Amino acid sequence: MSINMLSKTSRCVKYFGSNLKASVGLAARNTTGREVSSAGVTRDFSSTVTEATFPTKEYKLHRLDTPPASESTLTRDDALKFYQQMQTIRRMETAAGNLYKEKIIRGFCHLYSGQEACCVGMEAGIRPDDAVITAYRAHGWTYMRGVPVLGVLAELTGRISGCAKGKGGSMHMYTDNFYGGNGIVGAQIPLGAGIAFAQKYQGKDNVTIALYGDGAANQGQLFEAFNMAKLWDVPAIFVCENNGYGMGTSVERASASTDYYTRGDYVPGIYVDAMDVLTVREATKYAADYCRSGKGPILLELATYRYSGHSMSDPGTSYRSRDEVQEVRQKRDPIMLFKEKILTSNLATADEIKAVDKQVRKEVDSAVERSRNDPEIELEALYEHVYVDQAKDFPIRGCQSITSGVAQ
Ligand SMILES: Cc1ncc(C[n+]2csc(CCOP(=O)(O)OP(=O)(O)O)c2C)c(N)n1
Ligand SMILES: [Mg+2]
Which GO terms describe its biological process (predicted)? Predict the structure, then answer.
């Protein structure tokens, strides 16, 4: 039984900063105020509210007259859901980092820790049938688009339970309406414009989110894609995840202008504080409405931070100080801020948060175990899935030695 179904009414609170501004009456949720969930977790509702309203962080606008919503109403269900999603991604990435250090994951591995509010907030602002395409920092997005933790971690260890059967690894994960995971910096942006073009061409009511990093933001191919997207007014939400650094370089050293939300020129843009998941959600809803109404592309700059180095081979300390990373962790961490928010507003109790943490730990630990021990695909399966409906003996150049036993 969902929380909402149980509640006859509710307490709703409105927050402005830390001050409680308004609250409306409390009515019984059920006779006992307690529920045992299907997971066996006892929830005590007596002290919680069903929804609360928070101010969003200030947006900066480029070629737009009205900003996204200045307030965001959060239900109890969504509060626990967003917390669980962000915490799962954090723990999954920590597990991936550890597996990499053990040399069980090989090759590239780019972690998303610190940036969780971006994908969780954006997913909450679009629909599952909308499309997403991102760069190589793809694990969090893969999970948010519906791949379970096992599908991500086993992909990283190259095992059969991986979402690409272990053939893709860190940068090449896919699922329905999720077009990867792309290793070439910036290359996913023209592809994203193409997906949006197809949506418009086919008369669909969908939008495409195409994400790139600050390091990709100065590439020529982005501006070519912006031009065509605006020329044909395709429903593309271009998103610059500005985590402050490219591969070993700060944005200030690499960019003549770091106002990335203005860099689409004739494409309107919004600067978004992406350490706050609700601010991201409202900006995304706004952008999706904008695109769906036929106005063409829009650009969001999500100001965020990554805790790890660029990849596992970068300790991430030669171009920024440990103190800086520590300070963000202590003062601006998106999960910590959100947890504080839902606890102080009584959307969730400390016990419920603990129960979520426990469940997340269990899921990630069991996915780690299987990702270590699952088999790899059969050798012959390496040349499958190159083409749609590929004939059994279809020759793939470079793979004949495997299939025919003849060295090439
Ligand atoms: C065309 C191309 N050039 C260079 C690289 C190497 N490279 C990989 S990531 C990266 C920096 C990208 O930084 P950013 O876009 O800010 O993304 P972040 O890693 O911060 O998420 C570079 C130069 C590449 N993969 N592709
Ligand atoms: Mg970056």
Answer: pyruvate decarboxylation to acetyl-CoA
